[in-house]
Design a protein that fits this description.
alpha/beta; Ribosomal Protein L15, Chain: K, domain 2; 3-stranded parallel beta sheet; two-stranded parallel ribbon; 21% helix; elongated
Length: 162
Amino acid sequence: MKLNTIRENDGATRNSKRVGRGVGSGRGKTSGSGHKGQKARSGVSINGFEGGQMPIHRRLPKRGFNNIFRKNYVEVNLGRLQVAIDAGKLDASKPVDAAALLGAGVITKTRDGIRVLGNGVLKTKIEIHAVGASKAAAAGVEAAGGSLVLTAPVETQAESDA
């Protein structure tokens, strides 16, 4: 194989349209833009315009709102914790908190804290420090002989300024 013999697969690329190159090309004169008017010019910006009728995005009612004080927790399932312990990434003898989960690669961001959920089975006795836990998760941790310590949510910068 030589570098000068390498070609694209057939149909992989298309030639660009050569517009405005004479009447015989089929795209001469107006270059496929029709005659005059806003749509024949460059920089057309009429998406969503409905000819003076009230646009649909203004006819429909607003609904809901974004709560700026909402806590954004990271969810961790019991099964995911067990996988990390089995892989040797989490030390079961030490408390499992946000820093340990971050170091083990179980989570990527701590956000406002960790919330433990009950999907999967935990077989190892561990102590978990989390902001919250579902009833199923709490039952699963205690069934394995471990304990669940609930901590306060992480204070964000915006809350401390208020």
